[in-house]
Amino acid sequence: MKKLKHLDLRREVIETCLKMNADGINQGTSGNVSVRCDGGFLITASGIVYDKMKPAHVVEMDLEGNYRGDYLPSTEWRMHMDIFRARPEAKAIVHVHSTYATALACLRREVPAFHYMIGVTGGTSLRVSDYAEFGTQELSDTMLKAMEGRTGCLLANHGQICFGPTLAKALWLAGEIEHLCHQFWAAGLAGKPVILDEAQMASVLKRFKTYGKQAGDMVKGDIPAVLAPRLLPPKSKKKGKS
What we know:
By secondary structure, this protein is an alpha+beta fold. It has six helices and seven strands, in the order αββββαβααββαα. The protein has a single domain, classed as 3-Layer(aba) Sandwich (L-fuculose-1-phosphate Aldolase).
């Protein structure tokens, strides 16, 4: 039997699929996951139940729409391929049909800056794409338009999609998008949410550029996300009595 390439990455894709269902942001086989690799990307196969998925069910594709192996890639392989082609910073992609994100996508409701965390996708709103049928080039095209300057968007009458520098961070972002959609839905039931203005969000977005970075990762000109307290010097060790 031929040895599989990228075995560790394939296992990480499977773990991500299992976790997104366990976290409640996806159900069944409706979502899909991919990760960039040498010469292309790896993506979940079409219709394979996640708890039965083996490394061989994670399909290797190039960036020209070709695949290798015995299993067909996810029906949404075009969206994944086109993100990887258009956005070199994208290293991993998560697409799910999470409940509140999908509900707002079906209402074609863009999520405004009702909460500063809306900036996690890179802008002052969570956009909704136009509708296009699943698996088509039209869907991929309208998705890319909605994701201009963003790392995620809602897909009309469909769900949500986002990307990150790692599978773990892409999955985190998908969860954050779902929480924001849930919060926006709840706020709307209670009243009319107060929307943060452009100046308030501009300040947030500058700080979000270093969100998650530690002090040693910062470069000149970075605006820290954390307004850090004073760093205390290490405690000196007391010498024992002789």
